[in-house]
Amino acid sequence: MNRIFSGVQPTGNLHLGNYLGAIRNWVALQSSFDCIFCIVDLHAITVPQDPAQLRLQTREVTAAYIAAGIDPERCIIFNQSMVSAHSELSWLLSCLTPLGWLNRMTQFKEKAGKQRDNAGLGLYAYPVLMAADILAYKATHVPVGEDQKQHLELARDIAGAFNRRYGVEFFPLPEPQIFGAATRVMSLRDGSKKMSKSDTSDYSRINMTDDADTVALKIRKARTDPLPMPETPEELETRPEAANLLGIYAALTDVTVDAARARFAGQNFSSFKEELAEVSVAVLGKIGGEMRRLVADPGYIDRVLRGGAERARAIAEPHLREVQDIIGLLRP
Ligand code: TYM
Predict the structure, then answer these.
(1) How far, in Å, is the centroid of ligand 1 from the Cα of 195?
(2) N or C: which end of the chain has fewer CB within 10 A?
(3) Dist CA 193 CA 190 (whole Å)
(4) Domain ranges, ordered by start, for the chain
(5) Could you check whether 3-182+297-327 and 212-293 share the same CATH topology?
């Protein structure tokens, strides 16, 4: 069976972008793939994290996966740092990754900003660790949001570089799965900016744990242009805020963006926003409630993570040993 690997960083608040761009799609894929879903704590520490918060958020992301409908029996759910093969393989792959490939990564440029010399080596090497995550399991498919596309291309390049250097067909080239009506959810306050965990502006982001009133308020306050809802696909393309909200509506109700556009064409935004708030509250309210219930039982969460790590190790460790043999690292 084809194998899926994907992950979320336990940093800040999980938001609607993480849910619609990634987690909701995973739920739909779990019956047709062998699935591994990771909480990537080693990626989180590429920028400073408060230790207590990191522990809390690791459990919270685990709760979000389960609350959204990922079955921890069927899928493997674990936190990255519990399986040392990720770090070990990351080193081995870093030895064949040219600096030029890493220099192209836009996420590093964005995160390091002008303080490039002060950015950590870990932040720079971040995409190599991500390649190791995927390749340690020989995953064939990686469902993510649009913003991870460049990292996945790099993971494919690294897999190809390994296979070529050693003349083997060891790593499959992982396929990105970027699908659905909301692969890039934008800020509710600024249609040119991605919805992100780090955005501190008020009302820009809907968090997975926001209560019903907060969700409805944020949608009501979402920035829109003064025109009625777009009438044609061409018009939609020129109206980023409308496109974003319709994409969210379409993803939440499992229809195409075009079907959503046709349904509200010509109406004013306020009636559309009422409906959008209603569906958002219905979906997120259920998940948020279940997340709170799960987080209140850290013993259960930790058992899921422990069991998941054991199953993950059973796959990754033999692969790592094969890689060591291929490279010529003696295992006396
Ligand atoms: P992270 O934690 O930033 O985001 C988790 C997932 O959410 C998606 N996403 C979005 N989708 C749509 N609209 C948005 N505004 C939005 N914001 C985030 C992301 O695309 C992602 O799928 N590097 C990864 C984590 C990672 C990983 C991996 C993923 C580490 N190793 C291996 C896949 C495979 C990241 O930082 O995701």
Answers:
(1) 12
(2) C
(3) 6
(4) 3-182+297-327, 212-293
(5) no
Residue partners of 71: CB distance under 8 A and separation at least 6: 30
CA of 184 to the centre of ligand 1 (A): 10
CATH of domain 212-293: 1.10.240.10
Please give the distance of CA 252 from its chain centroid, rounded to a whole number.
17
Instruction: Name the token pair of 192.
Output: 């040119």
Residue with tokens 């699908």: 179
Assigned fold of 3-182+297-327: Rossmann fold (3.40.50)
Q: Find out whether 104 and 173 touch, Cβ atoms under 8 Å.
A: no
Note the pTM of the prediction, 2 decimals. Answer: 0.97
Encode pLDDT of 215-237 as tens digits: 999 999 999 999 999 999 999 99
- Locate tokens 């194998």: which residue? 3
Give residue 263 CA to ligand 1 midpoint distance, Å: 30
Is the CB–ligand 1 distance for residue 184 below 6 Å?
yes
Measured CA to CA, the distance from residue 287 to residue 292 in angstroms comes to 9
Which residue has a Cα nearest atom 26 of ligand 1?
Answer: 7
